[in-house]
């Protein structure tokens, strides 16, 4: 079975890992990403609240993570989300899964994609299932990374702090501004993306089981 996944975010990358784990002998997975670089620009929080559920699964996907997460007893595990996406993608590539970046989906059906890649090169992908994992939001939440402690944030393992606000704070030095994937803070975190991946994996598994 040939599956195309649109979006090399945690949702799409997590789904690809789940599919590969169970169906690597039967599934061909192709991932297409519009960004020129996976993980940048970063959209969403780097917080994994329910880490007891997911951390062992992530450990099986990531052979050598670039940045280890930092445990915050109040919030959860604090990742650098951009590097988590990169590491998940590198792990998939090492398993011979193709990821095309700088590639735009011009049109799509349930079983095909019309694509435009680098230099305006056009191509068509045809298979069995297309899954759109892009998450679009008009959220007003703003993610801030700074080298100063944030009262409403958490520290990451690289020593920086991440926090999320409705208005851009001005009382500390900002190193990076992150886009939000949802105006609901719980839907902005890593948990939500992984749960979406799991739900879509279960749907595909049901189709596979039913022939």
In short:
The protein is of the alpha+beta class. The chain is built from four helices and 14 strands.
Write the topology of this structure.
Elements: E1 2-6, H1 10-23, E2 28-32, E3 47-48, H2 51-61, E4 70-72, E5 76-78, H3 81-93, E6 98-100, E7 104-108, E8 112-116, E9 122-126, E10 129-132, E11 142-146, E12 153-155, E13 161-165, E14 174-178, H4 190-209
Parallel strand pairs: 1-2, 1-10, 2-6
Antiparallel strand pairs: 3-5, 4-5, 7-8, 8-9, 11-13, 11-14, 12-13
Helix pairs in contact: 1-3, 1-4
State the strand order across the main sheet: 6-2-1-10
- The dominant shape is globular
Biggest sheet layout: 4 strands, parallel
The stretches of 5 or more residues where confidence is low (pLDDT under 50) are none
Question: What is the architecture at the second tier of CATH?
Answer: 3-Layer(bba) Sandwich
What oligomeric state do the depicted chains represent?
A: single chain
Write the CATH fold name: FAD/NAD(P)-binding domain
**Number of spatially distinct domains:** 1
What Rg, in angstroms, do the CA atoms define? 18 Å
Mean pLDDT: 93
CATH superfamily, by name, is: FAD/NAD(P)-binding domain
CATH class: Alpha Beta
3D architecture notes:
The structure is a single chain. The chain has 211 residues and is α+β, with helices and mostly antiparallel strands. It has a single domain (2-209), classed as FAD/NAD(P)-binding domain. The chain has helices at residues 10-23, 51-61, 81-93, 190-209; strands at residues 2-6, 28-32, 47-48, 70-72, 76-78, 98-100, 104-108, 112-116, 122-126, 129-132, 142-146, 153-155, 161-165, 174-178.
